[in-house]
Specification:
This protein has 88 residues and is an all-alpha fold. 92% of the residues lie in helices and 0% in strands. The chain is rod-shaped and about 95 Å long.
């Protein structure tokens, strides 16, 4: 099978017109399938929008959690300072 495909490829590449047509059609097809407009359509039509919103919410929750830990740590440090001042 691979030998047949290789032979067909060699025949196509040996003829300039076929070589040009096959090369440009392949690139055009690849560009179309990877186009940004198609990606946006797929994202919004097949649940991509919901996934993006879910990811954004998760990132926001992680940020809030980190900030909360920082505030708690600062509060504990202040509490230790006050405790040290009272004990002395």
């Amino acid at each position: 099978m691979a030998a047949a495909l290789s032979a067909l490829n060699a025949k196509i590449r040996s003829q300039p017109v076929l070589n040009y047509v096959c090369s440009t059609r392949k690139l055009a097809l690849r560009d179309f399938t990877n186009s940004q407009g198609r990606s946006l359509t797929v994202n919004h039509s097949y649940g991509g929008r919901e996934e993006a919103l879910k990811l954004q919410a998760q990132q926001g929750a992680q940020t809030i959690q980190k900030e909360g830990k920082n505030i708690l740590q600062q509060g504990e440090e202040k509490l230790k300072e006050v405790k040290d001042k009272v004990v002395r």
